[in-house]
## 1
Amino acid sequence: MPNRREQAQGDQDLGDECVLLCRYLIGAAPTRDIADRYAQAHRRLQGLEPDAVTAFAFRRPRSLPYLDAACALRGTSDPLRKKLLLTTALLETSPQHAQAFTTEPMGRVRYLGALCGLTLSASIKAAIGLVLLEYVSVSP
Amino acid sequence: MTDRPDVIVVGSGASAVHAACPLVEAGLRVVMLDVGHIDGTYAPLIPPERFSTIRHSDTDQHRYFLGDQLEGIPFGSIRVGSQLTPPRQYISRDVDRLMPLDSDSFVPLRSLAWGGLGAGWGAATTAYGPADMRRWPIRHADLRDHYAIVADRIGICGARDDLEMSLDHTPHNLLPPAELDSNAESILARYVRQRENLHRRRFVMGHARLAIATETFRGRGPVQYLDLDYYGDTDRSVYRPRYTLDEFTGRDNFSYRNGVLVEAFEQGDDGGVSVLVHDLSSGSNQRLTATRLVLAAGAFGSARIALRSMHAYDRPVPIVSTSMTYLSCLNWPMIGRPVRDRRHSLSQLIAHFDPDGTGEHLIQSQFYSYRSLLNFKLVKDSPLACRQSIRIMNLLQPYLVIVCMLHEDYPTASKQLVLQRGDPDRMRVTYRLDEDVLAEQRRQQRQLVGIFRQLGCLLIKTIRPGHGSSIHYGGCLPMSRDDRPLTTTPAGRLRGARGVYVADGATFPDLPCKGITFTLMANANRIGCAVRDDLLAGGQENAP
């Protein structure tokens, strides 16, 4: 059982994690409620314990999009993806961030352009991410 | 009620309440025994407002959308019960503990809740036709009146449209059709434009027939189109078995007892039936007796009680289950158009496809729009990074159509249920589809995907959530004209047991690819009538 100071430090770390993930996912910092729920979820759920990939991503935040894309392509259910899914769910069910989960209607050309652009961006990130993932998994 | 009841009914789901109806209405003394879990946590939190409004206003929404234990976030793969949102998860509470079932190939959703699986029913009411029942020992005409009686009880909305071409029963008092959402409206308009061509391909489509009160009906509704049907019953428009139970309230000849699990029955000395009941709160056992017993605890629940009572351990009985395939499609021609917020979440359209033109293998597909189940579940299954997936799903979701396709099923040697002795006894299910059946299902799926493309729906992904997930299963104690053990007579009486009837899907010899629930209710009403007539005639039908 962690003592009170360790728990406070743990919550602080989880809060920082949550801010990082929210900024990555929707480009905005989370509300305090979401950060609290994120920390509570880590106390309740299993499978969120950090692994080498998660630790690397949080040490070097700029690697996060690439590692996320590579993990998604692999289809594995690793802690990084679970943390991202958790954060997405918390954001989507918060009135302050609900707008980030809707899109205004747009014309077909723009729509197709947006779809292609996003898919291309994710694919490039996945290609780089796969190399990075390989590096992370073999590095000490 | 102090005297011995005339009938004990086990369960409170769609079968149980409609089996009880003719008995209660005839003035017979009926006791309903049930585990009867309810949701006391989430239902009071859900405001009676539209989903889109809640999303931008309710700070507590995470509680009922995700659950207090975050049980609404699917960290694993799509599994049986994935369709249950946190407020509906009480439906399957305690099932694995109280009625354990082992299988490496079949994971059915079962229930011990008040209202059974009917508490989360999708409300689609498609009656079986004569071809669907061609292997049954009863005729379609035997069910026709009971469909009508049940329709009067539950209220069915729908339109008199092309779907009638493939339906053998239209309620005489059909409620006005539910409003279609924007996706369904556009698909139906395209269907109408191509009607003749699609009819040549043996494909018809129409408004879903749903047990939704589109106008005030027996104290329910009218539907408010809140798009919260996966979470709660705020406007009481979608039929739930408990509403029929509510109508029994105050009747002296009916009582409902929850918190008890029926373990077994045995013949009483005086010609009645004695039921062994386990009280879940005190842990004590008790015996109750009645003149007749009606098992309607769901196919597995009833089979468990019957097999235990008849000491039929390790004896295989059949099991049938309609397989389900979800086809995620993009309604391409809708892109760029605004979609309406006012909608219900349930099936919008129903299509019937007759692959070989005989009418014997009709395939039913139900069309849903994806919205109120939230985008994060789509993000989870995306092969792309979350950041991009969120934006892609935001783009796709308003135009996403989920087609739910059912496949018929027949008993074979590779689909069996066995009860094994233990504490508690355990059911073991072996369920395997032959390769030629799977190939045929894939062929039919390809044909349908071609038709959906013609309707503007482009296939994105196919999901097969596994055997048992359709919730449409049964056949463990099939009705048969042959006098074989562990079967039921066409009137629902369990062979080898005096005074015991089975009124749920356990009696269905096979399953066509249509929703089962409306027929479960009609058949339960038929069996309830048989029990009533038997009792009123002095019990002549019950020679052992």
## 2
Amino acid sequence: MHADPVGVLTGAHFMDGDHAACEGAIAAGARFAAGYPITPSTEVVERFSNRAPRIGATFIQMEDELAASIAILGAVWGGVKAFTVTSGPGFSLMMEHIGYAVMTETPCVFIDVQRGGPSTGLPTLPAQADMMQVKWGSHGDYEIIALCPNSPQECFDLTIQAFNLSEKYRVPVFVMMDEVVGHMTEKVVIPSADKIEVEPRHFTTKDKSSFQLYAPVGEEQTPEMTKVGEGYNVHVTGLTHDERGYPNMTPAVQERMVKRLVTKIRDNAEKICIVEQNQVEGADVVVVSYGITSRVAQRAVEMARAEGLKVGTLRLITAWPFPEHIFRALAPKVKGMVVAELNLGQMVREVSRCAEGKCRVAAVGHAGGTVHNPQDILKAIQEVAR
Amino acid sequence: MSTTTTPDCKVHPGNPVESFLRTDRMPHIWCPGCGIGTTVNCFTRALIDSKQDLNKLAIVSGIGCTGRVAGYVNLDSFHTTHGRAIPFATGLKLASPETTVVVYSGDGDLFAIGGNHLIHAARRNMDIKVICVNNLTYAMTGGQTAPTTPEDVITATAPYGTYDPAFNLPYLVEAAGAVYVARWTTFHVKQLARSMQEMFAKKGFGFIEVVSPCPTLYQRRNKMGDALDTMKFYKEVSKTKHGAPTSEVGLTKSGEIVVGKFVDRERPDFTTHMHEHLQHSLGDKYIPAEGPVCG
């Protein structure tokens, strides 16, 4: 279906990534946000607080990130699309509710504008160091979807994608921004509502006697939704539960339920994953990056190409599920991969795992606070190409 | 015996409670003599008598023995994370304003790990109804000290007796801004059911504390007898004082239990206040949220 025109600011704008992400959420149909102020993400909810009462939406500033991250889940079961926004320490506080959203299959969106850590770290400066936390930070086995915009335009586009994927798979989806992308101001084109594809919530049409809140449907292996007040008398719990939603703490039900939570994403990973590849065919070296680092890496790649090196680029737009199939196919064809990211080695672990020793994998880490010097990435390219 | 007019919920004349329960989930996990089942009985009585549309009522629990209530009642029900029933309920209420949202949870869940959320929801006067079963301990995990445990009580984590002061729940909740505050024990079943009914009818943040036995862990460990002894104890030491100053109703190990309705006052609830304020600020530009929309 198409976006609701009420929320869509069609036109060309000059705005930063935080504001663009907010507009993406609104265009996707989000009508509820709960937040707690934290730099450098606060502008997203500041804008939403301004826009909400003019578009039939609700914003509430909660008392902390624990509250914000579960208020949105309550709102989703109340029947709306909802999101929250945070950074660094706030993201750490939200971990338990990521697990709860996964376990209860509550579609929702978290926007994390990454800053330097650990702890309070660098509140106003960039990092990409929550990339493993988003995948592994909540306890237990689970799969989520995480997207990495590298421009304000993509903050808009991918936030819509995030909502669409969350509804399709009943899973929390993460927009993993970074401080630079969040605060960088560029042209953002917002299409007309009829040009924006929006995934509606898949409310069940089954009657009460036959509907099961956790019975998988279709190749997405994802159950249909409902909301309060429809007479379904659903039970939603973070305990291990059966298809009816009833607690059932047996190894057999745990196996069946957790496996499905994981396989609904893993089995559909090739459909979910988006990467951007450039001159990868015939390349000796492929530079792998995402978010703001992809734009810094581009400079290094151009310098390397000017030296005659055959260099391709591969940008992770989807970080999770990790696009394993692409890396497994690519590794035997190249001399090596250079992975540049604003952390001291996170997604490079996935690249190495999927390369299976078939090519060299070099990490160009950075503790955050600023972006890479392209020369550092160039050096790694030269080294791997040798 | 009364009957409800709710479509999905025909009340069996012999057992007024059964149709409110997920009987396919019985037996429940609560111990013999536990007071939680008694409170659920009162809750269902209050639902019957208040003629609540059960399709427009949702129950939200946290974690713990009382947290399991959500799983046993045949309503839209949410068993959330430890301490976070109230912020979940806040989101649910804002997204679905026509739904009566009841938070049903224990003292540890609501006042220790979830204490911050409780005081903020009371401050906002969110239109949610909190039923707090106070068994004075962390029962699900084996009877450890809670912020409600009175002084000089033996617990699993205070083998020489507790020495940190306990919260006086009605005093705290009144100070934070609740518009309805009452306390009963599981001995006062009629009063409790009536009080719940009264709270459902009142817009804003309502709070009922139900002092309840945990014979397995609290009473036994403190040589206070079994469930029947506890009922006798409640009967003996309870004193009904409607309108009592909440500063004077703190609980002790074996002293008087002041019960009654302490607070019943008027203050605009969060949503009403928000609508009025935004209407005033934005005029014609204000488009109120109209409940569930999922385009």
